Structure formats: structure tokens, C-alpha cells
From TrEMBL:
GO terms for cellular component: extracellular region. GO terms for biological process: xylan catabolic process. Keywords: Carbohydrate metabolism, Glycosidase, Hydrolase, Polysaccharide degradation, Xylan degradation. It comes from Leadbetterella byssophila (strain DSM 17132 / JCM 16389 / KACC 11308 / NBRC 106382 / 4M15). Residues 443-667 form the Glycosyl hydrolase family 67 C-terminal domain. Gene3D superfamilies: Alpha-glucuronidase, C-terminal domain (3.90.1330.10), Chitobiase/beta-hexosaminidase domain 2-like (3.30.379.10), Glycosidases (3.20.20.80). It is an enzyme of class 3 (hydrolase). This is Alpha-glucuronidase.
Length: 688
């Protein structure tokens, strides 16, 4: 009987090990003899003195027996030597140095968090078969996740369950998951987390909640992670019962100052505030005739004595049916360049509209010379198929970061701008809207974990490539077999373009379902705001399709440096993947490959569906080579993705055909349903 119980327990543990909970930290056994020969003799012991190194040591003790099958003993002269050394010659306080000698590997850093990063670097090197020596520093100061979590446990645009934070249990009970969350982030170098939705409830600033926030901050602190809060600009009125929240009124300023003092008395290393003001109905300084500068600087002054930061979002756009939302952030913020206090960062979404599957870079990045800007990426797949579509986002992040902005009329990547190299920023930041939730595997789609991973790695080093990041992630998560690894890597690298092909080819944008942002609804012509419809963006008519943003149209291109916008300005030279972002393209315009636009456009949707079928076939080939539960989970989601890719194809082809009035290209089978039938699918999905 006892034996059976053991076997049952063993089986349960096996199943557990495959459910994705451990992310890229399952530390499965290394088989490669070369790696074992290099590391085993040098990791027989751990040597450290500093008490602050406990979490680093704990990670080593957890990982090394699993990876190498040895249990390092404590102390001695050789082995893994971990040292905090304030005098070490590294300029970056979060950096670290790794050196290797005959019997030892030494990790030294000016601060304990650097040693922790060094330990995670070492574990990554072991799992990717690399040697660890070198000096390493993050290229970005603030490496941040933004959680759009509400206090009732829901997550705005979250597709992996409920919020990780259990407000009703805090501060007394600390879910063990909080610590695993911190470990996962620290393993990537993420050092900041905004724990609540940008559409912020004022309640998070109440004394009742602040003790709960403190409890989380205490768990995250040993992992080098600072807590930030999204704040509701009207809090002095809502919580403080003041008549209003006018940032120029002394009593409002006093309220914020006292609130900041209260927060810092509980959380001495509190990071600061993230603010969505005067955007999509949120309150802000403009409610009182004041400006973004007035609002941001007032908060900055309250935080300044404590070393806190304000992240003020540039995602602000007035509803103007005649305008072009593309231009809004620039128009709102460019006039204020140079007027923000020195602890304010303006947080800008990667593109000018809103996290579309492919966007040109936001022109603001090229225009604010005197104000540090933070990059806001979206990791949760709001517009990229939620948790049923496999999209490896690092390809998109990389495309954006490597964009040559032509600032100063020379090669200047967006990555360099973010690193502060171009305009000499005093602060640098990359943030990602998190895709985590209470699902056992954290991200819903098992491959979504790679997007969290990639955001963290790119925030540390925005010059890394999607390809190498995929390889790292795969060998720590799915397989270390090189053939399996490279097969999965090629799949991952193809996924973003596949998604673009069946949803938004040639720069088509904002044609998704209204409100919920899932599935195709290119026919949406009415919404609470004109710039939430699809028609506003695609402008399809009998002549063609696309938004003319050249000087014959909205002239949004004028917001970029001339040298950047020049190729985009003409139909002849505009990169084809951006055509509909900048031009109203005639249906019968000839493209480079000889097809007329209509045909090329339709073919992309069909190609996308075929490519999903290809993904399905390729995924079948890794059966038995990756954890079974992950295999099955991804297979099932690919089936849904396939079904939904056909949905997208049928909807877009049939709908736009009503404008082009042209036949499908030869050889393509017409959709099996009518446009009216496709439109009804929304009801089947019961999303609204
Ligand atoms: C949009 C989302 C909305 C967010 C908003 C934002 O649809 O839920 O509140 O962005 O970033 O993409 O503030």
C-alpha cells in the first residue's frame, strides 16, 4: 500500500513538474559532458559571507543539485565564490563580474542584487552550454512590468486567469507565488513592478491598501524589485475629500506630499507613480485647465525628497473624427519638451496608435530631446490573439528597437535612444504590460512565457536578438536537444509574421473587434468614439484602402525626422509592410512582385492560414521531445488558432471585396461562408 502511495506521489510530482509553473527555472538535468566537465568541479562548494546574499545562495542550492546532480557544500576556499564588493571597478551599481579559475567561479558585484543577477547569469550559462566569465551591466535603469490588475482581482486585458495579488488575503498571508514571481523577474533583471491598472482605482492609495502593498514590497525587495503604483489623479478628491484635484492648489499638493510621506514610511524604497491622466476618461490636470507638466511636476515634487519617480504616460488622444489619432501623443507632449522635473519620465507606447501587430515607431521617440522617454511594450496579447494565438513577441520588439530613426541624420537605433545615448537621458526605462495571471502556468498560452522572458532580457539589453533569446528560453524551458531546439526556435521566429499575415497584412491596422479587441470586425463603423471604429483607420472605398498620412493626407509623417519619413512618403519607396499605415493604396496598384494590390492583399490572408497549418505540422514533430502537457496544450491552442485564422481571413477578404469588387486571385478557394455569416460569429463567441 505504502509503495503505491509513493508511486502515486511520484507520478503527481512528475505531472507537476510539467505544468509550466516553474517557467524557465525548472533546472532540468544537464546531459552535455562538456558542460558537466566545466561546471561540476567548480561548483562543489558555495562560499559567501554577506547576509544579503541569502536569496542568491538559496537559488544556487535549489538549482545546482538539479542541474548537475551534486550538492555543493558550504564554505572552503574554492567553489562558487559570491562577494559583495563595494570597491569593485564597475560603474553600473547593478552590474557584476564573473571570473573563472582552476577550481572556482567568482561572482562579485558592488551590491547584493548584482550578485543575484550574476547567479542567474551563471545558471543560464550552464543551461545554454556557455562559459560564464565577463563583466555585465544592464543597459537600461528601470526594467519594469506594468500589471493592469484591478483590486477586485480582474485584469484589464489579462488572458491568463485572475490577478496574482490576493488583496483580501494581504497583508497577513503571503502566497508563495509572490516569491516565485520575484525570482522569475530577478532572473531576467526586471527591477520594478507597477502592481495595478493604469485605469487606477484611488483605493490603492488608501491606508488600508498601502499595508498590503508594503507586504508585497517586502517579498520583492530581496530580489531587487521596487514596487510602483498606478495612481488616480483625482485621489485627493476621492480619498482626501478635497473639493477637487487641481495640481496648482496648495491643499492638493499637500495631500500628495503627505500621501508620499505615508507610503515611504511603510516602503522606504518605493519606486514611484505611474499615471494615465486625461486619457480615455481618466481624470487629469486638464480637468482644471492645467497641463501635463503641472500634473507631472506636482507629483514629482511630492516624491522627490524620497527619491521616487513619476512615469507619466503619453497615451493621450482627444476624440476628433477629423483628426488623426496617430499624431495625438506628439501634439500633446512635444510642446512640453524640457519642462518636466528631473524625476519625471514620459512613458510612450512603441507605436503611435495602440499595440497593433505591426506599427511604425512612435514619432515622439525621435522628437523629445530634453525629456527622458520610457518604452512601453505590451506583453499581454490584447491585439495579438489573446492566449489562443502563438505569437513570439520578441520579433516585434526587436524590429522596433532596431529601427533606424535617422535622428541627427545618422544611423540612430531606437534602442540607442532608449539607452540615453542620443539625447543624454538622465533616466532610462523599458516597461512591458504583463501577461501574467493566476493560471498555473502564469501566461495561459505556454509559449506566452517566452514573451515575458523576452521583455525582461530586452529591458536588460535592448540590443539582444529575438533569435538568441528564443534559444535561451527553449533550452531552459522545453528542450536542450539541438535539433528540437532549432525546430522550435524557427517556429517561434515565424509566428509574429504569420499573425500579421492573417490579420493585418501590408500595415492594415485597428480592424479588430470593438471593445474586446478580439477577432476581426473591419466593418465597425459605430463606437463610443470615432477613433475606436475600424473605418476610421482602413478607409476602404471603391478606389483603394489605407490611411493617407503623407502631405496629401493627415501629414503625420511630418512628425518624424525628414530622413526617416522620406521613404515612407512615397508609394514607390514605402516598405510594403507599412503601406496602409501611410497610403491610400489603389486596389489595382502593381506591387514589386507583379501582383496588383488587391491580389497580394488577399493572398496574405490565405498564406497566413496555410502557415498556421504549417505550424501545426511542425509542432507535431516535437511530440515526445518536449514535456507532454505543454505539447498537448500548445497543440490544442493551435487548433483554435487555425479556426480563428480562417475567421480573420474570411472576414477581411469578404468585407474588403465589397469595396474592391474584384475576384479572388486565381487558384484561391472562396470562403465557404458569406460575409453575413462571418459577421454573426461574434455572437457565437459571446464576447459582448
Ligand atoms: C488600450 C486598452 C485599454 C487600456 C489602454 C491604456 O484597450 O484597456 O486602458 O490601452 O493603455 O490598449 O491605457
Amino acid at each position: 500500500m505504502k509503495r503505491y502511495l509513493f508511486i502515486l506521489l511520484f507520478l503527481c510530482l512528475q505531472v507537476r513538474a510539467e505544468d509550466g509553473y516553474k517557467l524557465w527555472m525548472s533546472y532540468s538535468k544537464i546531459e552535455d559532458p562538456k558542460t558537466l566537465n566545466f561546471y561540476k568541479p567548480r561548483l562543489q562548494a558555495i562560499v559567501w559571507e554577506d547576509k544579503d546574499l541569502e536569496v542568491a545562495v538559496e537559488e544556487v542550492k535549489l538549482a545546482i543539485p538539479k542541474l548537475l546532480g551534486i550538492t555543493p557544500k558550504k564554505g572552503g576556499k574554492n567553489g562558487l565564490i559570491l562577494k559583495v564588493n563595494p570597491h569593485i571597478n564597475i560603474t553600473n551599481p547593478e552590474g557584476y563580474k564573473v571570473s573563472v579559475s582552476g577550481q572556482s567561479i567568482t561572482i562579485e558585484a558592488p551590491r547584493s542584487v548584482g550578485v543575484l543577477y550574476g547567479v542567474f547569469h551563471l545558471l543560464r550559462c550552464i543551461q545554454t552550454g556557455q562559459e560564464p566569465a565577463g563583466e555585465f551591466s544592464p543597459k537600461i535603469q528601470h526594467r519594469m512590468l506594468n500589471h493592469w490588475d484591478n483590486n477586485n482581482g480582474t485584469i484589464e486585458r489579462g488572458y491568463a486567469g485572475m490577478s496574482l495579488w490576493k488583496w483580501y488575503e494581504l497583508p497577513e498571508r503571503l502566497d508563495p507565488r509572490y516569491k516565485d514571481y520575484a525570482r522569475a523577474n530577478a532572473s531576467l533583471g526586471i527591477n520594478a513592478t507597477v502592481i495595478n491598472n493604469v485605469n487606477a482605482s484611488a483605493r490603492f492609495l488608501s491606508s488600508e491598501y498601502l499595508v498590503k502593498v508594503k507586504a508585497l514590497a517586502d517579498v520583492f525587495r530581496p530580489y531587487g524589485i521596487k514596487v510602483y503604483l498606478s495612481v488616480n489623479f483625482a485621489s485627493p478628491r476621492i480619498l482626501g475629500k478635497l473639493p477637487d484635484a487641481d495640481p496648482l492648489k496648495p491643499e492638493v499638493q499637500k495631500w500628495w506630499k503627505e500621501k508620499a510621506d505615508e507610503i515611504y514610511s511603510l516602503i522606504p524604497d518605493f519606486g514611484g507613480f505611474l499615471v494615465k491622466a486625461n486619457s480615455e476618461g481618466e481624470p487629469g490636470p486638464m480637468d482644471y485647465g492645467r497641463t501635463h507638466v503641472d500634473g507631472a511636476n506636482m507629483l514629482a515634487k511630492a516624491l522627490k525628497p524620497h527619491g521616487g519617480m513619476v512615469f507619466w504616460r503619453a497615451f493621450v488622444y482627444a476624440p476628433d473624427p477629423k483628426g488623426d489619432r496617430f499624431k495625438a501623443a506628439y501634439e500633446e507632449f512635444k510642446p512640453y519638451d524640457g519642462q518636466f522635473d528631473d524625476n519625471v519620465i514620459i512613458q510612450v507606447k512603441n507605436g503611435p496608435i495602440d499595440f497593433m501587430p505591426r506599427e511604425p515607431i512612435s514619432p515622439l521617440f525621435t522628437a523629445m530631446e530634453k525629456t527622458p522617454l520610457a518604452m512601453e511594450f505590451q506583453v499581454t496579447q490584447e491585439y495579438l490573439g489573446w492566449a489562443t494565438h502563438w505569437v513570439y513577441l520578441a520579433s516585434m520588439f526587436e524590429e522596433c528597437l532596431k529601427t533606424d530613426t535617422r535622428v541627427k541624420n545618422r544611423k540612430t537605433t531606437l534602442s540607442e535612444i532608449l539607452q540615453g545615448k542620443t539625447f543624454g537621458y538622465r533616466h532610462t526605462a523599458i516597461t512591458g504590460v504583463a501577461n501574467t495571471g493566476s493560471d498555473r502556468n502564469w501566461t495561459g498560452h505556454p509559449m506566452g512565457q517566452a514573451n515575458w522572458y523576452a521583455l525582461g532580457r530586452l529591458a536588460w539589453d535592448p540590443d539582444l536578438g529575438a533569435k538568441e533569446i528564443a534559444q535561451e528560453w527553449i533550452s531552459q524551458t522545453l528542450s536542450r536537444d539541438s535539433k528540437t531546439g532549432s525546430d522550435i526556435q524557427s517556429m517561434m521566429l515565424s509566428t509574429r509574421e504569420i499573425y500579421v499575415n492573417y490579420t493585418s497584412p501590408f500595415g492594415l491596422h485597428h480592424v479588430m473587434g470593438e471593445g474586446h479587441h478580439f477577432g476581426p470586425e473591419p466593418w465597425v463603423e459605430k463606437a463610443p468614439r470615432p477613433d475606436w471604429t475600424a473605418l476610421y483607420y482602413h478607409k476602404a472605398d471603391e478606389k483603394g484602402i489605407g490611411f493617407d498620412r503623407t502631405n496629401t493626407g493627415s501629414n503625420a509623417l511630418a512628425q518624424y525626422p525628414k530622413e526617416f519619413s522620406a521613404p515612407f512618403s512615397s508609394l514607390e519607396t514605402c516598405p510594403e509592410e507599412f503601406l496602409l499605415w501611410f497610403h491610400h493604396v489603389p486596389w489595382d496598384r502593381k506591387l514589386k512582385n507583379g501582383d496588383i494590390f488587391w491580389e497580394a492583399f488577399v493572398k496574405k490572408f490565405y498564406q497566413g492560414v496555410k502557415e498556421v497549418e504549417g505550424l501545426q505540422r511542425d509542432w507535431e514533430k516535437v511530440k515526445g521531445k518536449v514535456p507532454q502537457e505543454t505539447f498537448e496544450n500548445v497543440s490544442a491552442r493551435l487548433k483554435t488558432q487555425h479556426k480563428e485564422a480562417i475567421w480573420w481571413r474570411d472576414a477581411c477578404v469578404l468585407y474588403f471585396q465589397t469595396f474592391s469588387k474584384k475576384a479572388l486571385p486565381a487558384g484561391l478557394k472562396a470562403p465557404e461562408r458569406t460575409l453575413e455569416e462571418v459577421k454573426k460569429i461574434v455572437d457565437v463567441y459571446h464576447i459582448r
